[in-house]
Write a structure and sequence with these properties.
By secondary structure, the protein is of the alpha+beta class. The protein is 20% helix and 33% strand. The protein folds into 2 domains: 99 residues, no CATH class; 103 residues, 2-Layer Sandwich (Alpha-Beta Plaits).
Length: 238
Amino acid sequence: MGDWAEARRQWAKCGINVPDGDGPIDTDFGMICVRLDPWGSGETVFARRIDVVRARVLNVPFGSSGHRLFDIVLHDGAKTGERALNGGTVPVFNALQTLQASDHATFVAFIRCPSADDMAALEDARLPGIGYVEDWSASVRSLCLRCSYGVPHARDAPAPHDERAAGNDDWQVERSLGIGAQGKAAVERLLADWVAAGPGRVIDAIERREGTPSAPAEGQVWWCDPTEVEHAGEDDLV
């Protein structure tokens, strides 16, 4: 609701230490994960809490989710799982809605990358208008994005979706990237500079597709830990 004076008063009454002031809080309440579209695809991304109930998304979400890198989302207060991070774990909270939309849209780039060093060079590259380059081939396991976007690749190779380069026995040459950027021109320049800087680097396609957040179905139980719902009986859900 944006009533920050009342929000601060309520949090203080609950014994939560918040910075002095009257307006919105934007500080570091630690790393968490938020489950975007928890009643639908349930995409889980890392985020940094900027106050008790808001977090800034730090991964590049799928464009179809209707969410973006650096979105500020309102999240639930009940933990619905955990994720590993830096040798420990962080809680997962359901995202309820986007409170402040980011200007960094999601672009999907399909490239051929000869080695892990070439990938590291791209991830470390900096350019105005580019928020973050994420190697989805390393972080997304459940689908082949090239197939879903209709981008050709080495389908007749002995191991589809797993083409390998000589000298890189564990390296998949074909990579799918999520790039949070303010415009396609910045993405094209970033990738063109990367291709020009090393042999064997190829851009197959750059795509942008955006969806809108969905709404929960009536009667749907989405606010519990998915594993608890899966194993619960009817009496447990009443």
